[in-house]
Amino acid sequence: PLLAHLDHLDVVEIDRDIVAHLRANYSPDVLTVHEGDALRFDFAALGENLRIVGNLPYNISTPLLFHLSDATPHIRDMTFMLQKEVVDRMVAAPGNKDYGKLSVMLQVQFAMQRLFIVPPGAFRPPPKVDSAIVQLQPLGAAAPLIENAKIFAEIVSAGFNQRRKMLRQSFKPLLS
Prior knowledge:
Blueprint: E1 9-13, H1 16-25, E2 31-35, E3 50-55, H2 61-69, E4 75-83, H3 84-91, H4 101-107, E5 110-118, E6 131-138, H5 149-161, H6 167-171
Parallel strand pairs: 1-2, 3-4
Antiparallel strand pairs: 4-6, 5-6
């Protein structure tokens, strides 16, 4: 259905059967299939002003979101269907029980909005969980300046690893 609205679409797919189906049914003029693991794919190589959409595999959604964030300068927006609880964690505000590492790490780079919930009855067979559609837009110049992304990620991880522990103890290995 996306091809009805686009001149060209790039897809990243690891499943050989789906890749074969796409290549057999769509011209390379309108559909480029990048066969491989999305966690290893260089999205920045696709160019600028990217609009990335997908129904992300629930088991790799968080690592894939972090991987995609590496291509933020090339991204216009991203719209995904994910497990509702993941979306709730992504968009959670400070003080909310769902606020955590995923919230912080994505919110420093993206403005995010949960668009709507997709109930299990929308699928066959129905899953045991709700899904949700979320849109992410890079903050660009409005993003906070993080001088060392690796250290920032370590501090955020330490702060949320053991929620009931005193922050002083959580940060002890990282900060004096």
